[in-house]
Amino acid sequence: MEHRRYVVLDVETTGNSPKKGEKIIQFAAVVYENGEITDRFMSYVNPLQPIPAFIESLTGINDEMVEDAPVFSEISERVYRMLDGAFFVAHNVHFDLSFVQAELQQAGYPRFIGGLMDTVELSRMVFPSFESYKLSELCRELDIQHDRPHQADSDAEVTARIFEIILQKLKTLPVTTLKSLRKLSDVFISDLHEILDDLIEEGEDSPYQEGSQEVELYGTLAFSDVFTKAYTKESLQKSEIPDFPELLHCMQTELSSYEERPQQQILMTGIYEALSNCEHMVAEAPAGSGKSLGLLVPAMKYALENGTRIVYSTHTNTLQNQLIDRDVKLACRILGRPVSAAILKGESHYLCPHKFELSLMETDDNYDSNLAKAQILIWLLQTQTGDADELNLPSGGKHLWMRIHHDNLSSHPKNPYRERSFYHLARKKAEHSTVIIVNHALLLNDAAAERKQLPEFEELLIDEAHHLERIAGDQWGFRLEYVTMHSWLQRIGHLYSRDLLASVADWFEQESEIGYDYCLEMDVLLKEFADELNDFFTNLHAYVLKKKNSSGNRISFSIAEDTDQNPYWLSIEELADRIRFYMHDLLSIMKKQQQLLKSASLPLKTQAKMNEYFSFAERFKYASEAISHLFSNGSNDAAFWIEAEAKGAKNAAILCSRPVDLSDQLANALFEKKRSIILVSGTLSVNGSFKHAIRQMGLEDFYPKQLMLPSSFNYRKQAKLLVPSDIPGIRDVSQENYTNAVASAISAFAPGVNGKILVLFTSYDMLKNTYSHLKSVEEMTGYTILGQGVGAGSKVKLIKSFRQADKGILLGTNSFWEGIDFPGEELKAIIMVRLPFDPPDQPVVSAKARKLESEGKNAFYDYSLPEAIIKYKQGFGRLIRTRDDKGLLIVLDRRIVSSRYGKYFLSAIPDLEVHYKPMAELSHLAADWLN
Q1: Residue 594 belongs to a domain
Q2: How far apart are the C-alpha atoms of 463 and 284, rounded to whole Å?
Q3: 654 and 723 assigned to the same domain
Q4: Keywords for this entry (predicted)?
């Protein structure tokens, strides 16, 4: 490996494609051999064409800088000789290679035919847990200084440093891992096989030996020492804990950033009393009240004093990690003793090593799948949890994970890795912990399931409790999509594939003639079923597009709308019946095959294939039940709808349902089963009452203790509410005119705000149209304008770009109304385009409305208005996050001051000063007040 020469290159160019005549404007190379840099070369290159403005902005290279530079042909001999006999190394190697090849050929030199190394690919493999593999992000993660991004010499230098770190990392891998990587390497972009062959040959020098404390070798896999090292097994015994005055004193002395907050002290006392009195409790703790510690300290004090455990449920995995990494540790310092805590997630989060080992034995030429396998091989040497949330898998790798995660079959007695189960390890840690941190989905899944995943517990904290009812609906409803079912059939395959049915048939052909006949029958049925399934979802897709006119991509159509006696719909119901009959027949054959295997002794690899094959029986059963449920929509108890992607494939449809009223299910599954449940959120009350939340979550019969904390912020000084009196009503003008008015309002307020603005929409169509309009407004050219779902960026990337902008406007829909923080100067104003009422034709909303009205209630005042007020409070909560924040809430919906119900929105945020004036006056007011 040391004897090879690597030329690490980077080029800056006038565009993305040499085929379109675009040219190199800067070339840089770093030669790396014998473990050190031996040569460097950099030159600007005259492209003999103007440099586009966006390239100049990106790279800082302008026409004057290249005017006296050589054309590429003048440096081509040096470049050719440098590359001769070397490996071509670059970050996204095909981009740089395509330009260098084109320039060399034009200069009369032969094409480069040597080895390639792509540091994007290699970084993904070697650093499988990094969030991003952009050059700047890799430098940040690896603590490499990168002073001039998008300058070829700087980029080449840091790429060489990254490549050196990658080579060093590969040298430390155990031979077992190297051999597995070698088997995968033929499909990689990088010519890694030569390096791996050398490292395998030098394997005697590997620092990893059998019995090493750092690694455990088992079977064909190498693990970190997670299964061999001891972990704390805390017995749940009673111990004395100081009273609150002393704990508050500890908070002041132990936490350097501690601010005395009366709200936090009230919350701590209230929670401790509710737990001690075996009461359920509902509490609202607005931003700034120190909610996490306010929950954890009294709960952990109670648990230690009573020898019990606490389950803490939150909304997202990010919050789970924050609790375990930061808040639990702070609580332990305050309590003056260590308290064991563990995160527990659902089975599908954890790797099954046996399934993974079997996947490595398969013949697989899929690039994403092989890259994911390589990532997992290296990750196994690092992970202490086996949790997929640590991995940054390629999109195709997620399909692999669906096959190799832990499930109930992973606990089979014959599984050779049964004692090396990450899921069982997580459960053991949870069983011996005082605090178990879960998310709402696992909590609700466990509450409804016969096979429990959580250890026994009696006390439960539910943070972000306003999400509980919605997530319960997702957990206890159905969702069936073509893509998922098609992937099932692909995995089962057919008799002449390399998939499951072929493996099952191979065994039966040798051992059981009747079993093989069943496989033949299965093969025919599966082919017919695949055609029927395609027809079914294609017809669903066509039906929705015919019924719903929308410019958006994702369209929802309620099955209850007008399906009765509709001939087209009746034909879909017939297709649904046929689908169910096929699944009944498939299940029947699988059951017969299982009977034949009852007394069979199978080789381990065959047993694993059989287990996976028969696991599809449960999936077909679920799908059959879902279709039966969805097409028997004769009651008000559930919402039934179809989602279709207008711009997707012709069968891109999803069947969905969820219970309309979850109060009884939540009451039966949770509240009557536990001694004390504490529900806390920053937004649970409506008009100073918890009545809506208590009714929605099934708490009415339990008479929960109620605690509503005032905000710790001074909204009269920190914020103002501006409502333009001259904005048109959405029903008074066309959609196009209203969108133009919204864009004009944003343009009018932006100069006065002179900073960052978050614009919240309730309609994606309106967001998209507003984004297009803003992009065309000349006055907005100095602003970074970002739109959710408009470009290719994820939510995380949008937020990062917004934070980096000097003056930015970020347009977002549902997921931007909560859960994101922009403290201080990161956000100066929020514009709410409309009051956040859910669309009345949204299937769950319309189903809830029908049910409430059938009970003689007012659907608007009993459901739509409370939900909108809660969302309004969540949106406002993005603006003021600390006592030093200052910002504007601008509502482009006159109903907040003109309608009968507007007063409920105004009173939701007490002491907020309201200004209802023409836009021109408000824009001046905004500028004066902020600046």
Answers
A1: yes
A2: 10
A3: no
A4: ATP-binding, Exonuclease, Helicase, Hydrolase, Nuclease, Nucleotide-binding
| Phi, psi (degrees; rounded to nearest 5) at 54 | -70, -30
d(CA 72, CA 26): 9
**Six-digit token string for 801:** 């770009």
- The verdict on 798 and 865 lying in the same domain is yes
How far apart (Å, rounded) are the C-alpha atoms in residues 268 and 281?
12
The DSSP symbol for 84 reads T
Report yes or no: 122 and 166 within 8 Å, Cβ to Cβ.
yes
The three state secondary structure string of 818-876 is CCCCCCHHHCCEEEECCCCCCCCCCHHHHHHHHHHHHCCCCHHHHHHHHHHHHHHHHHH
Tell me: do 740 and 881 sit in the same domain: yes
From the annotation, which residues make up the binding site for ATP?
285-292
Ranges of H-type helices in 679-787: 691-696, 715-718, 735-753, 764-776
CATH of the domain at 767: 3.40.50.300
* Residue 640 sits in the same domain as residue 740: no
Is residue 774 domain-resident?
yes
Which is more confidently placed, 552 or 349?
349
Q: What is the mean pLDDT of residues 637-665?
A: 89
Q: Is residue 647 part of a domain?
A: yes
**CB contact set of 656 (below 8 Å; sequence gap of 6+):** 477, 478, 479, 480, 630, 640, 641, 642, 643, 843
Give the domain-ending residue among 114, 140, 171. 171
The CATH number assigned to the domain holding 143 equals 3.30.420.10
Distance in Å from the first CA to the final CA of the chain: 61
Q: For residue 75, count CB atoms less than 10 angstroms from its CB and return exposed for 0-12, middle for 13-18, buried for 19 or more.
A: buried
Are 765 and 632 part of one and the same domain?
Answer: no
Question: The pTM is what?
Answer: 0.89
pLDDT-wise least confident of 225-239, 364-378, 585-599, 630-644: 225-239
Overall number of domains in the chain:
3
Tokens 């607005």, residue located: 286
* Separation of alpha carbons 424 and 422, rounded Å: 6
Beta bridge partner(s), residue 786: 810
User: Residue 538: which domain range?
Assistant: 478-659
Does residue 507 fall inside a structural domain?
yes
Q: Per-residue pLDDT tens for 263-306?
A: 888 999 999 999 999 999 999 998 877 888 899 999 999 999 99
Which residues does the annotation place in the binding site? Answer: 285-292
Of the candidates 620, 641, 659, which is a domain's last residue?
659
| DSSP label of 180 | H
Non-local (6+) Cβ contacts of 298 within 8 A are: 244, 268, 269, 271, 272, 275
Q: What is the C-alpha separation between 758 and 362, in angstroms, rounded?
A: 49
**Of 311, 601, 604, the residue nearest 443 (C-alpha):** 311
Crossing angle for the helix pair 604-630 and 353-361, to the nearest 10 degrees? 110
Quote the distance between the C-alpha of residue 720 and its chain's center: 34
Whether 729 and 826 share a structural domain: yes
Tell me the C-alpha to C-alpha distance, in Å, between residue 7 and each of 401, 507, 683: 36, 52, 57
Query: Is beta strand 676-681 parallel, antiparallel or unpaired with respect to 281-284?
Result: parallel
Distance, in Å, from the CA atom of 812 to the CA atom of 756, rounded to the nearest integer, reads: 13
What is the band of 230 on the pLDDT scale with cuts at 50, 70, 90? low
Question: Are both 626 and 723 inside the same structural domain?
Answer: no
Per-residue model confidence as pLDDT tens digits over 863-921: 999 999 999 999 998 888 888 889 999 999 999 999 999 999 999 998 899 999 999 99
Give the C-alpha distances (Å, rounded to integers) separating 455 from 309, 422, 670, 777, 823.
Answer: 9, 16, 15, 58, 38
3-state secondary structure of 730: coil
Cβ atoms of 241 and 301 within 8 Å: the answer is: yes
Nearest Cα residue to 318 out of 389, 376, 422, 388 = 389
Query: What's the rounded Cα separation, in Å, for the pair 324 and 343?
Result: 7
Integer CA distances (angstroms), 273 to 270, 278, 299, 709, in order: 5, 8, 10, 16
Number of other CB atoms surrounding residue 401 within 10 Å? 17
